[in-house]
Amino acid sequence: MRKISGPGNVDNEFVDYDPISNPEGTVVTADFMNDVQNELIEIQDDAGVAEAPGTDAQILKLIKFNAIKYSKNIGEYFWLEENKSPSAFVLATPDNFFPAINLSKININSDITTSNYPLLVPYLRALKLKYLDGTGSEVNSWTATVSGSNITMPTSTSSDAILASLAEDVLVHGSYTNFRSITVAGTEFPITNINTATRVITVTGTPSAGSQTVEFFNYRITGSSTSARLFEIKGRSFISPNDSSGRHQNGLRVRDRFQEHRHYLFNSQSTGIDNIDSNSTAIYSYTIGNNNAYIINKGSTALLEPTLGQSSVSIDDGTNGTPKTGSTTHGQGISAHIYIWARSYIA
Amino acid sequence: MNKLIQLISIETQEILCEEIVLQETYKERSYMYHLQIDLYKLDNINAEYKEYDLDENGNVIIPVIPTEPTE
Predict the structure, then answer these.
(1) What is the pTM for the complete model shown?
(2) Do A281 and B33 lie within an 8 Å CB cutoff?
(3) Which value does ipTM take for this structure?
């Protein structure tokens, strides 16, 4: 757009006609009016809204639409307390436009297409699994050995990290049904098994044999270029994929866990253990209340576990109250739904 | 000291996978083997992890099993 430049303008501004001081006034040119018109019409065209007479607030509604549309990046995660379904743009009610998917509501997985999500699907399909070692270097493809349906990943830190992360993700997923795919020499194959010990990934189908380039596109579906697969996300906190351990890769889920640790063991019994030798093979047994507890020295290979009871449950430390335990490990939290922003949604 | 690490089927005692690992790679490989135990559960296979120290000739050092617990 440009300012008025027709006859009688003053510094490209309009001035009023005055029969004495400004008998010419500023001439409103077709160029200027067409500029203004085209700028406004383009807002409508971009939204696919047809021209119509007497729609005083149409541009205002489209400004609201665009404000919502570009409020987040495509693929951005965000939280809302309520459960909302995707809602397409309707000119009469621009505030209801909600181009996002509730990932908490997905049951295991959900396949979406470009027909409904023309921007999110291409975005997801381009996302690739990357190994970041914490210093900025990135590995996103590997040379693997293919034999039949088995793909043996190479022996390397990045390869092991990817395998471990995929293993975590499939354990969260619960099975290999509708799981992720591996791309071998440019073709996707659905993963049907992962063996982190042998580094073998098994797929449906037979990729080209021999030494092949493999990649992992997190959301691609075998045989389709117009769809993407989203996965259920429940109760996850965000972890940087660029961690120093290299344990976390972008877009993959992990189970809960807590840091590996050891315990000091103190013998407060008046009788009993007085000879704990880490090189000994002996097993010491003693009684706490009605339950047996064992101290098994390092040298022993015996598999003895404390009887479930007083010797194996968490108890009040006298300061912080009764330990709170549950099926998962997590910090203090707030329960909310996690969404992914699609920017565009067509019902 | 090198180690032999194994995953063994609890039901059949079959060796599912095993590997001799060097001290430098032991921690990572052991982690991957433990992770595999959980993956096997997806296929309803119950596996247990075992490891053995190897002597300089690559032979398993047989641990001494205690004969009787002491108090």
Answers:
(1) 0.83
(2) no
(3) 0.86
